[in-house]
Design a protein that fits this description.
Low-confidence stretches: none
Structural class: mainly beta
Strand content: over 45%
InterPro entries: RmlC-like_jellyroll, RmlC_Cupin_sf, UGlyAH_Cupin_dom
Protein name: Cupin
Domain (S)-ureidoglycine aminohydrolase cupin: 18-86
Largest sheet: 5 strands, antiparallel
Order of helices and strands: EHEEEEEEEE
Shape: globular
Length: 92
Amino acid sequence: MEGFVIKEMSWEEAKKFGIDSWETWESGPDVTEGEFPEQESCYFLDGELHLTVGDKFYLVKPHMFVTFPKGLPCKWDIPRYVKKAYKNDYEL
């Protein structure tokens, strides 16, 4: 998946990129499938996300940075709760 990035990142490193000033979003349990309408980068602050991209599964937890390119089809399964800081059209 071109443009899809997922990596661990400490909070101190994240702050160097200004992530501490990004908008936040949170959700309780939910399952969603679809494509991203625009490119989004996010840093997970709390909770857990079961992410499926194509035939690959990813467990996304706090201190993980993810970039979703525009049009990327994926499935989000939030088992309990998740909170992320996010910004559109941002690349590291």
